[in-house]
Write a structure and sequence with these properties.
Number of strands: 0
Order of helices and strands: HHHHHHHHH
CATH topology: Tetracycline Repressor, domain 2
Distance between the termini: 46 Å
Low-confidence stretches: none
Radius of gyration: 18 Å
Helix content: over 70%
Number of domains: 1
Structural class: mainly alpha
Number of helices: 9
CATH architecture: Orthogonal Bundle
Length: 190
């Protein structure tokens, strides 16, 4: 990796962490430059605008999600094992997953490129879950009348509850409750 690419990755790692707490609107080039001990002009040269930085943060988080959650799960056997691997890896991804929860709440009623990028990322993830569910149906692991999109919707809903209960409410039983809910969803579809 070239030095410029490594610097950009470091910037985006820190910016993604900050975005979880201050949101994209709260993320400033000045704040980020201070946190990284870089000049504002040096940081600005990597992105050119606050909006470009926001889009880069979303893309960076999405790329990490794909490499750390989706790609490894795709190596698991097709059907329910892969669907479970996707959900398990998603749960283990932990705090990083909260960036999408944070950004979807922040941007849900703000039109623009950042909202579009978050919406596309979440739509792609729900499509990936639905595809995995459809494959589980095709493999005979789930009933033929299972609606893959509905199952993806319900899995996503469980994960939103998991993040809310775990992060906002600090419930130590949140993960166990989420796993029971996921098990119940898959058992109902089996």
């Amino acid at each position: 990796m070239k030095k410029g690419d490594a610097t950009r990755t470091t910037i985006l790692d820190r910016a993604t962490t900050l975005a979880r707490t201050v949101g994209l609107e709260g993320l400033t080039i000045g704040q980020l430059a201070t946190a990284l001990e870089l000049s504002k002009s040096g940081l600005f040269a990597h992105f050119g605008s606050k909006e470009a930085l926001q889009i880069a943060v979303i893309e960076h988080a999405r790329d990490r999600f794909v490499s750390e959650v989706i790609a490894p799960a795709l190596k698991v056997s097709r059907g329910t094992p892969r669907l479970r691997a996707l959900v398990d890896r998603w749960m283990k991804w932990g705090e990083d997953a909260c960036v999408f929860v944070q950004l979807s709440a922040e941007l849900d009623d703000r039109p623009g490129p950042a909202r579009d990028a978050v919406a596309a990322t979440i739509r792609d993830w729900m499509d990936a879950l639905a595809t995995a569910a459809k494959i589980a149906v095709d493999e005979g692991h789930l009933r033929a009348d299972t609606d893959p999109k509905q199952l993806a919707f319900e899995l996503y809903g469980v994960m939103l509850a998991y993040h809310t209960v775990g992060r906002l409410l600090g419930d130590p039983k949140g993960a166990a409750r989420a796993r029971r809910a996921i098990d119940a969803l898959l058992a109902r579809a089996a």
